[in-house]
Write a structure and sequence with these properties.
The chain is of the alpha+beta class. The protein has a domain of about 130 residues: Beta Polymerase, domain 2, CATH 3.30.460.40. The chain contains 6 helices and 7 strands; from the N terminus they run αβαβαβββββααα. Helix 4 runs antiparallel to helix 5.
Length: about 200
């Protein structure tokens, strides 16, 4: 099977970023209209925090991650479906595709508060109460976001944490905020800034 590719285009690059931004704003506005508590998590939360220190250090992300309480899933479903999203449970994830023909990359991904994503993880996700108001949406506090990233500790999480370290939002003093396993992971990143 041969793949076809579009020509390289700055307009397509800008459009890709703008689509994620629009999806984030549409989803959070729908949840706020429905009175559902949530917090922006993942790459968008990292980008938002990084902008507080150095806008030029922001890294783009391809999807939207929202932290919600599992018991709010029925209200979340109604709110997001009313905003044009389509609920799917795919590969163990609860996602809302951005329309009928959308891919999982074109989605809002749900993360459940007070639960572990994987059983072996050292700590559960924070609650939605560990958030604060950004200009247009609720976002995880920096401490809660770093905890999630240290817990998941996948390649992209380590990159996000290095971004936060690089702009000076977190440093070695943050190790005291977390259990020893997470503190050790943070120290590893401090010791290996280039990966």
């Amino acid at each position: 099977m041969s793949l076809t590719y579009e020509p390289i285009s700055l307009n397509r690059m800008v459009s890709a970023v703008e689509k994620v931004r629009e999806r984030l704003l549409r989803a959070t506005a729908a949840l706020e209209s429905a009175g559902v508590r949530y917090a922006v998590a993942g790459g968008n939360a990292v980008a938002a925090w990084v902008t507080t220190a150095d806008e030029a250090a922001v890294r783009n992300t391809q999807d939207v991650d929202l932290l919600i309480r599992r018991e709010d899933l029925p209200q979340v479903t109604v709110a997001l479906e009313s905003a044009g999203f389509v609920y799917r449970h795919v590969a163990g994830m609860d996602v809302f595709l951005d329309g009928q023909g959308a891919r999982v990359r074109d989605a809002v991904h749900l993360v459940f508060a007070r639960e572990k994503v994987r059983d072996h993880e050292p700590v559960a996700n924070p609650d939605v109460t560990e958030s604060e108001r950004a200009d247009r949406f609720q976002i995880l506090t920096l401490e809660a976001l770093v905890r999630i990233k240290l817990t998941a500790f996948r390649d992209k999480d380590r990159v996000h944490l290095r971004d936060l370290l690089d702009v000076g939002l977190i440093d070695a003093s943050w190790k005291t905020k977390y259990p020893s396993e997470l503190a050790d992971r943070l120290q590893l990143l401090i010791d290996t800034p280039e990966g």
